[in-house]
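As a next step, we paired sequence with structure tokens, yielding the entry below.
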Amino acid sequence: MTGRLIAAGLALFGLLTGVAAAIVTEALDAWGYSGYAAMPLDVEIAIFYAAMGFLVTWRKPRNLVGWALVTIAAWDGFMALMTALVGAFDSPDDPAARLFEAIQHAGWSPPIWAIATLLPLIYPDGRLPSKRWWWAVGFASFGIVAYLVGGTLSEGVHGSKYTVHNPAAVPELQGFATFLVETSEVILIAASVIALIGLGVRWRRSTGVQARRLSLLFWVLLFGGAQAVLRNFVSMPIVVDHILEVLAAALVPTAVAVAVTRDRLYDLDLAVRRAIVGLVVTVTLLACYLGLYASLSFITPIDTAFEAGIVGAAIFPIALLLTRWVRQVAWGRRVDIVEAVTALGQRMRDRIEVSEVPAAVCEEIVNSLHLRFARLELETPDGGRTLAEVRKCADDEAEPVTFVLWHRGTVVGRLLVGAPEGRTHLDEMLTQALASLADQVAPVVAALRLDEELLRSREQLVTAREEERGRLSRDLHDDVGPTLAGIRLQLDAVRAKLPDDAPAIELMDRAVTAIHDALGIVRRVAYRLRPPELETLGLVGALRELALFLSAPTLKVETQLPDDVSALSQSIEVAAYRIVAEALTNVVKHAKATSASVSLSINGEGVVVEIQDDGVGLPTDAGSRGMGLKFMAQRAQEIAGQFSCQSTEHGTLVRAVLPLRNR
């Protein structure tokens, strides 16, 4: 708490002395004197750096960036007040005026050089990049001290309503003082370049939000150095010179403010960040009006209130655009999450098929948030499985950012996105929007996961059913059938030994007939459980046998079948056989066709079964009247397959895509 109070005291001291310096200068009407040329810069540094330094030190009292800002503000504010007070007396020989001149003439430089040399080395976390950079701190500190000593000893004057000479100057040491000033200037310029290069290297090596934080200060300091060189070698109006100088110094705390508001540097809360943005926008608007007003006044004198009003009206559109730009820079790109969720809900409501929902989600995320790609993954017991992926660039290999989808305490999937084009990371606003959007998408993915589990359970049920049917078919064929056949043979043997007029002959005949009928029932039940052709001939042989059996003089059935189907499970074989049998039965009964073809192929899509005929096609109400199409569709769907039936120019095409094996 003591550290915070000291920092607050320094910030308050800098703020009060800066404001007091401006008030004194205005009261003396001394803005036009040469001794007060740097007063706008000093007042601005004292106020802006004090405000930002106080916020940083209050939140992060151990961060040296905040302490550097409040120290610079306090030092510069005090020097500005000393400068203002030099011309506040009746005579240049007043002891107070001479004392204030000695103080301000010696001490004006350290805060300015500290901004260019020391602040970049410790930004943003208040620490040097490594211990190897201590030499740069020592190099810059030596230059600042040498410049301070040289300025103290050198002759100089302060121009106001009178001229005040530096009372601390030593005439005999002017050569040495000049040497110190010139040498230290070279040292400090070199230290500034070294600090800027170090900041640039750290920026290029960092990623994400840290890279943007460093880039802001890098470009601000680069602009400051460029304008200093420009003002030194190019003659320009005094108004433009002051505007460039003040702007360069103001951009440093502005860069910190943008990092605070946009990237939550130093973890300041929302109210403080909003206050910072409001202050930056207000100062920008004021600076825009004052700067442009001063520039126009330099070109054309403005003497009346009417002329001032006309100038203000002309400046207003420019100031409005500038403040909008400043607000956008401070907050970053705003993402309307409500609009994105509404559009996503509309897309999902318009989609009929559940399988199309993931693609709709990815498309909406990529389009509404301008991302490079989006991928939606479903979490399954076997690991993640991609539901849909949408990419703007096919060859984009950017590192994705992952958002875990939680629903009722369970991870149901993941949303992977790529940063917008031209960026390597997601900013805070976009990250918050995607996190909120992931919460909205999670219930949809959870529903898809339930559908996946239901489908998996149904497949397991189908597999178990087919295995049980196979077992029952074998039991009926191997046990019940032979037993009944043996009983019938025994009855035939008994009947053969009875006389023809025996009363039991009629009973024996009825028993033999009943057993014969029972054998037929057993065969039909066994066939319905699992076609015996599949057991004896396999799927390929069974389909060829079926095509040969249904061929007739008026109908020719051809087959195109692979040689090896060993990769298929029993449930897949039964489904394929039943679909082909039902489709060919419909061809025989209803199509009036002269030829039909059965093809079965295995590829990356799965097992593709197609039955094509050249008949009259399907009636419009075929799906509602007949049960055959429903049975075929059910056979495909219960093992996670797809089924379609459509009339073509040459007849009817029945197509089923079945998985290679049950999952």
Q: What stands out?
A: Residues 329 and 419 are 18 Å apart (CA to CA).
